[in-house]
Amino acid sequence: MRVIIADDHPVVRIGLRMLIxxxxxxxxxxxxxxxxxxxxxLSTLPCDLLITDFCMPGDGQADGLKMLSRVRxxxxxxxxxxxxxxxxxxxxxxxxxxGVTAIVAKGASATELPDAIKSVSQGRRFISESLRAELxxxxxxxxxxxxxxxxxxxxxVRMLASGMTVSEIACYFKRSVSTISKQKSxxxxxxxxxxxxxxxxxxxxxxxxx
Length: 210
Fold this sequence. Notes:
By secondary structure, the chain is an alpha/beta fold. It contains 10 helices and 6 strands. The protein has helices at about 10-20, 35-45, 65-75, 90-95, 110-120, 130-135, 150-160, 165-175, 175-190, 195-205; strands at about 1-5, 25-30, 50, 80-85, 100-105, 125. The longest helix has 15 residues, at about 175-190. GO terms for molecular function: DNA binding.
């Protein structure tokens, strides 16, 4: 398998390359240090697998979900392994919803990346044990699809994360406070989120706010 790796930390890329080079089934054909160089590399270099970090600085593409969405739009059949430090449940589920095949925790990459590559090559999903525990604890299971937010719920979450109160949002939309509160609660329920802190983290990770 021809592999492209992407991470903005050179030392991480060295580690990933060593792990992949020790495999008899994969060869690293290219490295990227951000979303822009990754998209450029993908357009010129054929590959069978992308192993990428989640958040890398780039030209307006620093948030991971937007980057994944762009990769998926241009290369719908490309298997993607995400190697990340993120453990936010909603973000993990969103990554799977964007078509990621496997998610490996950075702390466990040395032991789990080979297993993830094997699973992906066989057409199966993989998720790190530690992250699977996070999802199970949240009651979502590791293969639970992400229900998409309605347009109104998305807007309410975005406005909350940008610093507006429920009352201010209600006033803006000329709706009752209880209606906005209900939309907020429904959004949190869909995302498997129980606290405002996690809701704001989800909004940031998915690129709603910067």
